[in-house]
Structure formats: C-alpha cells, structure tokens
Amino acid sequence: MLCCRWYYLSDLYIYIIKKQEKKMKKSFTLIELLVVIAIIAILAAMLLPALSAARESARANNCRGNLKNLGNATVLYTDSWDGWLPQAAAAIGGTSSYRYWPTCLAEGLNAEGRWDHIWRDDTPQSTKAYFQCPTSISSGNAKSDRSGGVVYKELTYQYNTLIGNGAAKTPTAPRMLHRVASPVEVLLIIESDRYPDWKFSLSGSTPFTGNTYFGAPHGKSMNCLYADGHVDSVTESTYETAEAQAHQIEMLGD
Q1: What confidence score (pLDDT) does residue 171 get?
Q2: Average pLDDT, stretch 133-149?
Q3: Cα–chain-centroid distance for residue 45?
Q4: What are the start-end ranges of the E strands in the chain?
Q5: Is residue 54 part of a domain?
Q6: Does residue 227 have a pLDDT over 80?
Q7: Which distant-in-sequence residues (6+ apart) come within 8 Å of 62 by Cβ?
Q8: 243 or 236, which is more confident?
Q9: Which positions ≥6 away from 12 have C-beta within 8 Å?
Q10: How many domains does the chain have?
Q11: Would residue 29 count as lying in a domain?
Q12: CA 155, chain centre distance (Å)
C-alpha cells in the first residue's frame, strides 16, 4: 500500500515538473516583444535627458567649486603680498620669461607640480583640473594642443588683463585689492569654452574678438569669479556692452 502511494506521489511530482517546464518554454509572441521594446524605449527617452541634465549640473557645480578655490587662492596671495592682486602676466626680471597668473594661484592651492610659461612635465592632471571647467573638457571644446608650449592652451579660465599684463606691455598696472572700488562688481576670472587665451580684455578696439573669448559652456551661461571672492553665473552677453566694460575699468580704480 505504501509502495503504491509512493509511486503515485512520484508520478504526480514528475507531472508537475513537466508542466512547469512547458510553461517556462513558452515563448513571447512578436507583439509582446514589440510592446516590451516600446516600453523600454519610452522609459529611456524620459530618463536620458534627466540624467544628462544631472551630469551637467554636477559639472557646473564642480566648475563653480574650481572658481571658488581660485578665489581663496587669490586671498592667500594678497595676504602674502601686502594686498597686491596677482598680475595677469609679469616679466621675470632679467629674463625673457613671464610669470602668469596660474603660477601665482597654484601656490595657494598647494597644487603638485609647478609651471611658469609652460606646463611642467611633472604637473599632474589633479593640478590642471583646478584651471579646467569639466564641461568644457568633456565637450571637447577646450583645446589641449601644446604646440608652442604655452600654459594657456590647456586653460579654460581667463584672468582680467586689466589687473596688470606685463607680457603684452599694456599700460595697466598691478592693482591692490583694497583700491578696487567695488570688488563685488569686478570680474576677476571668467571661463571660455572655445580656444582660451590666458586673459580676457574688457578694453581696446576689439574686445571679445580675436583670441580673447567669453564662453558659455553651461547652456547660455558662464561662471565668473569676482574680486570679492564670490562666484556667480551670468549670460555671455552680460559684459559685452561698452557701458559694462567702462564700468569694470572704473570699478578697478587706480
């Protein structure tokens, strides 16, 4: 009797297993597959723009962080040099070399590797990253060509040439921070998403042309560091008028 029950249960078990296997082997119909694919496509179309926007937001925040760090480095520099702001460029006495603004600020960042007119071979990317907007780098707009060996070919930030520019022999002189009439209104460093120079011009016959560009890598806006150390996002056209340029010069003072 017990043996019969065992065989019965065994047969039932085999029957159930085979039935389950048949269910598992059942294939999706073409319509079902198309519906699944359509749902996946719709979800992807909804999620990808949001993910892209989130990535750009993170890069823009990183860019603002870079500029804030450069602002802190500027404060350290002025504290060490009796209130004098770093010059955009200054000739090194008795030599044909120039000391550019990234050299001055890198010291306040405790960045590894040093440079003067060119990037040193031992300068790591972690140091260069202080002077590169991640959006410009990721978009491929920032040039990294080292032909000529000049440092600014790898920069995506530009310094105000009115704060001393010995390299170009301009009449502008170094400035003391306390002599700036309204630091909260004076641009110190801006960004470029094209071919960046090491400085930008707010005066002259052709500002914002040639190789001195404003850039708007974050949609239609760019991040700016002001002389008081605050960072703001503005549109590219904000400072392109003659009135805006004249105001900048006036606020810089003597």
Answers
A1: 44
A2: 57
A3: 27
A4: 89-91, 98-100, 157-160, 187-191, 199-200, 221-226, 231-235
A5: no
A6: yes
A7: 134
A8: 236
A9: none
A10: 1
A11: no
A12: 10
- Residue 254 C-alpha from the chain's centroid: 32
Is residue 161 assigned to a domain? yes
Residue with tokens 């700036």: 180
Higher pLDDT pick, 45 / 80: 80
Looking at the whole model, is its pTM more than 0.70? no
Which amino acid, residue 173?
A
- 205: tokens are 């016959």
| 33: in domain | no
User: What residue numbers bound the domain in which 97 lies?
Assistant: 59-252
Q: What average pLDDT does the structure give for the chain?
A: 69
Helix, strand, or coil here: 70? helix
Helix axes 30-80 and 101-108, enclosed angle (nearest 10): 90
Neighbours of 103 (CB within 10 A): 17
Instruction: Please name the residues in contact with 71: beta carbons below 8 A apart, sequence gap of 6 or more.
Output: 188, 225, 229, 230, 231
Closest CA to 169 of 253, 93, 89, 254: 89
252 CB contacts (<8 Å, ≥6 apart)? 162, 163, 175, 180, 181, 186
Amino acid at 47: L
Nearest to 213 by CA among 242, 246, 232, 237: 237
Band of residue 15 on the pLDDT scale cut at 50, 70, 90: low
Residue with the bigger pLDDT between 69 and 23: it is 69
Q: Give CA–CA dist 124/131, Å, rounded.
A: 12
